[in-house]
Design a protein that fits this description.
By secondary structure, the protein is of the alpha+beta class. The chain has two helices and six strands.
Length: 111
């Protein structure tokens, strides 16, 4: 497994925080984004394994995720890392089946 990956000239490694690494994964998965990146297969596997290492250290039922919205009100989760209630580490992104006990949508709460 790789010890680092380079994205747009910046080095990333397993010690980078999970949210940063999740953002890189999202940029790879969605090639329509303005700041999309393309990871080689070994880089993608390393990134996913680093995220799973972060998941291992999380508490049961906890997750970090990225959301996106088209209208600013309804948000849809697009990638998540964490642990299920039974303690299984999870790295989720579309089109994988949703692993948690709540839906992957939320509404903006004003005020």
């Amino acid at each position: 497994m790789l010890n680092e990956i380079i994205v747009n000239g910046k080095k990333y490694n397993p010690e980078d925080d999970a949210l940063t690494l999740l953002g890189i994964l999202r940029r790879h998965l969605d090639q329509t984004l303005g700041d999309s990146v393309f990871l080689q297969q070994d880089e993608l596997l390393a990134l996913k394994s680093w995220l799973l290492m972060h998941a291992e250290s999380m508490k049961r039922g906890k997750a970090i995720w990225l959301e996106e919205s088209d209208d600013g009100k309804l948000y849809r989760l697009v990638a998540a890392v964490g642990k299920t209630d039974d303690g299984s580490p999870v790295l989720w992104h579309e089109p994988l089946p949703w692993p948690f006990d709540f839906i992957n949508q939320s509404y903006r709460m004003d005020g």
